[in-house]
Amino acid sequence: MTRSWEPGTQYNLGDVVEYNGDEYRIIQAHFSQSDWAPDRTPALWGKLPHRHHQQGQYQQQQECQPQQPQKTCYDYGKQEQAPQHSDSKEKKNWFGNITESQKQALEVGGGVALGAGLLGGAFAAWKHHQHKEEAHDSFEAWANAARGRAEEFRAKGPQGPATWVYNEGKHIPEHAILVGTEHNWNLYICRAYCDGGVQIGKASDVFKKGAVIGYKEDEHHLDQYEILLGDMRGLKWVQTGNSLDLASLGATPVEGGYENDHTRLYIARAFHKGAKHPGKVSERLDGAYIPYDGKEKCVKEYEVLCYL
């Protein structure tokens, strides 16, 4: 019987897995992550003819429809602050929609405790293929893919300790990962398309449009974004500083965003003006960059969100 695909697993050449009723043969050996499912990563997996395992045969995923390039962020403006309504509801268990075996796996970190060096080649190959198939990054392509991920999440529940879910406006969904509290409002982690990349920022129900990202030293307000949902029993914040050294983290960072030159961005948490703020960090930046007071602020000491 073909085993089911799972995140946090080493897959080698010749492996065959089942996912969503279809079977896939590996193309490139890699260590799987929660958003590298076979139907989303044609550079890593080839779809086999239905219920047949003929050696060396596979079919590629359907090509994404090319979109017209979009070179600017969609919304701009200054941050608006207002009192936040307190939420007295107890959040539901993140494990509510998954099996007992999946729950046990997540409680020890989702099976994704691996060296950061394993992120390199497989992810780069997938991103190269993804950008080639889409022809150009665009807001429409990103938004369509984000909506698809959200639909899958609603249908199947979480597949790992952290999941990016498409959101619009100021409503903050349950299980959003809380980073800190500024004054009397909560700050959560978001990401959104901007100028050919996907930038990481902050979300709150007091912001003018719901989300704020920093880009090119300015703040940009957006009402279409992804927000990070998850369970901190499978995640941890790792302290570091200055330019990010992935090898020194000792853990795998949660997948974040990317610059328009495809430089990977990771999720940072930095202390500034009495509160912890979400932001972005990369191997090319000289610290964590957080959107704050209409600008981007660089904080040299920060934490990176990682899998256990």
From TrEMBL:
GO terms for cellular component: extracellular region. Residues 55-70 have a biased composition (Low complexity). One of its GO terms (biological process) is carbohydrate metabolic process. Residues 38-91 are annotated as: Disordered. CDD domains: ChiA1_BD. PANTHER family: AGAP009604-PA, FARNESOIC ACID O-METHYL TRANSFERASE DOMAIN-CONTAINING PROTEIN. Residues 5-45 form the Chitin-binding type-3 domain. It comes from Agaricus bisporus var. burnettii (strain JB137-S8 / ATCC MYA-4627 / FGSC 10392) (White button mushroom). SUPFAM superfamilies: Carbohydrate binding domain. One of its GO terms (molecular function) is hydrolase activity, hydrolyzing O-glycosyl compounds. This is Chitin-binding type-3 domain-containing protein. It holds the Pfam family DM9. Keywords: Hydrolase.
